[in-house]
Amino acid sequence: MTDLSHLPDRAISIMQPWAWLIVNGYKHLENRDWPTKFRGPVCIHAGKKRDASAWEDTTAGIHPVTGELASHFDHDRTIERLGGIVGVAEIVGCVRASPSEWFVGKYGFIISNARPVDFIPCKGALSFFEWKGRLL
């Protein structure tokens, strides 16, 4: 079994392609209907469900929020990963408003230092969750 000790214990589940956009450095804000005081490193879990319209836009090179051409999305097959850990990031803040093109929710979790990791299949959960005991 792979050593997972270098990865954060907590994860947050995010639908694809949003998880892919975060871990590949395009999206620096995660929209939620609830606030958080959590700050620190977190694994990004790609849920088993995907946002169909955002998926179609992203894979077609269209920004899924603004609808503008976004040919800079350099996607590969990793966008198709569902049901597991796909990256790590840091939650550095939570805001109720933002000028970011990515902000469309009640709250935005500000994300920094995101990067992909090799896919680790595991079950997701709501809110922040301990993922290492949920491996598949």
TrEMBL record:
**Gene3D superfamilies, per the entry:** Hypothetical protein
Domain of life, per UniProt, equals Bacteria
Name this protein carries in UniProt: ASCH domain-containing protein
